[in-house]
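Below: protein 1.
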Amino acid sequence: MDLTLHDVGSYCASLWDETIVKHRGDFDSFRQLIRTGSSGDDVTWDREKGVITMTSPERSDCYCPLVGRQQNTPPVVCNCSLGWQQHTWETFLQRKVRVEMKETVLRGGKRCTFEIHVGEPV
């Protein structure tokens, strides 16, 4: 894993901490915020398995505020998303999480899908 990009993703997510904290404890409102945001991701939470799944709509490229909108964003940028997901969900849930990339457009997929495995309290 590229720790530098992971750290950049964590930092970018931290800029939203105030908003994330406002939704803490209300998964449905947080899910709606994400769905209506720039990513348009659908978010589900299988509480029994302890897995949150974030799935983007189909697309041909991704958007990164540091890279901008361009064609052929390098696949390594996905490591930034791992950091973003980890920070966001650990802040929201106040629990450790492990993030797993299931599919990304930059690595040949039709959408981006991440699984967030919820662990122990922070």
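Below: protein 2.
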Amino acid sequence: AGARIWLVEQGVARRYDEAVFEPEDYLVFGRETAGLPPALMEKFPEQVLSIPMFNTESRSLNLANSVSVVLYEALRQQGFKYSDS
């Protein structure tokens, strides 16, 4: 209850650092080759985030780097607190 899903995909306007992450949120990333299914993004249009790419020649970050960037921001917003359970 209360958990939200955040989808991370390239080419959308809302940046990952504009989201306000909560402890119970889930982060969902697509495959490097195909991204997320369009039906999933259509189901949660207000919860799709992207990582800005400053080099227009670059296609995207690899999956591990993308997860690291967004997860770090979510943890930073929460003061790097964790649960023992």
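The first strand starts at residue 5 and ends at 8.
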